[in-house]
Amino acid sequence: MSKIYPSPTAALVDVLFDGMTIMSGGFGLSGNPESLIPEIRSAGVKDLTVISNNCGADGFGLWMLLDNRQIRKMISSYVGDNKLFEQLYLSGELELELNPQGTLAERIRAGGAGIPAFYTRTGVGTIVAEGKPAEVFDGELYIRESWLRADLSIVKAWRADSAGNLMFRKTARNFNPNMATAGKVTIAEVEEIVADGTFDPDHIHTPGIFVDRVVRSTINEKRIEKLTTRPRSG
Fold first, then answer.
1. Do residues 26 and 175 touch, judged by C-beta distance below 8 A?
2. What is the pTM of this model?
3. Could you tell me the fold of the domain covering 4-116+147-216?
4. H helices within 3-144, ranges in order?
5. Fewest CB within 10 angstroms: 7, 28, 108, 164, which?
């Protein structure tokens, strides 16, 4: 049965509710589900917990949900130049669970793999370790981190077929494949929908068993967060 939906709005029907947890792929402005996020804003769901590396940039991506005061808590690893993110956190309007980036990635991977907890040296002796169980392995102290899972994962891929098999392109791959495995429902927005049988099985990054719905993306801006150039010689 085809998993293709006609529009981002249709793909989100019956999956959104107040108080839910959403994982959103992307790193900086690369690989963000640009078409699904505005539809979540339009739906007006609130008290969201959002798991994402960062929270968009001014006027773009998850910033839209922050600006609309739909996010109650962020679980992320990077604030960046998002002034609204900073402002809401410092004013107490936004809860923030800040993670080392590798720990965040592994917590998401663990959620998709069914591993409820794991130990890491990252964060030992810092505020990251406060309140977390610790144990000594081979003479070194490790802290215990728990998995992350979500009611909904929204990811951005390059190509998909009707079965939901996904292929990502270069750095847009980032957190997306792991997040696709860790949601109760996973919706992938893609730039291209290809005919079944097009993919070489060895080139599939996320098997369709992890993907519930696929929609052709309507926004593909691919912004550059910080553009640095130099004069061309000659």
1. yes
2. 0.94
3. Glutaconate Coenzyme A-transferase (3.40.1080)
4. 8-11, 36-43, 63-67, 83-90, 101-113
5. 7
